[in-house]
Amino acid sequence: MALIVNPPVSGKILLHSCCAPCSGAVLECMVQNGLHPTVFFSNSNIVPPGEYGLRRSELRRYCEYLGVEAVDDEYDHAAWLSSVRGLENEPERGARCSACFRFRLLRSARYAAAHGFAVLTTTLASSRWKDLEQVNEAGEQACAMVAEELRAGILRPDSAAFPDNGPLMPASAHEASSSVSAPVFWPMNWRKGGLQPRRGEIIREQNFYNQTWCGCEFSRRE
Ligand code: SF4
To answer: Parallel, antiparallel, or unpaired for β 155-156 and 169-170?
Structure first.
């Protein structure tokens, strides 16, 4: 086994996954540790739609290979663009990427809360092109925001409505459910313990499509 990993609390784990290459070693490690995450593909940053579909289907293929459950979020690139408005010219690892991480991890944290997941983690920092601290900060913020939304009664978990009709339905304060809680973010460094080289091996073994840009139109331009 490459690495022994322990989630911060017990309970169901939601793994936000950005693509198959970044998820390969993370998922293998989790399964080897007896963890059974649900993979959540929430990546409205990716353009064009054909590229989005290709990354999603490669991840699906790997989840099926490992016998791991996979869920797709709604694709809403217009909403993602709104979340990074004014930050278009930021460099990679800058403020635009922080907003992008927050957007995707907030949707993931909402889904986790609505579906009884105790832990949220992400593959976003498994690539050496990403800043681990920046990703972890966004994950912590996303979980804190969902905790606050639930506390304030702004959101009502509605499994039937998610992910097709939006992350959570608006609700008045008296409708808020006290039995639902925000997930705990797991700020795991998924590059250590040999996972970085294993990442490359799995890409070759599985013959994954391996993109050359991060995902959004601005990263493509860069
Ligand atoms: S470069 Fe990547 S992380 Fe940064 S905003 Fe674009 S898609 Fe998001």
So the answer is: antiparallel
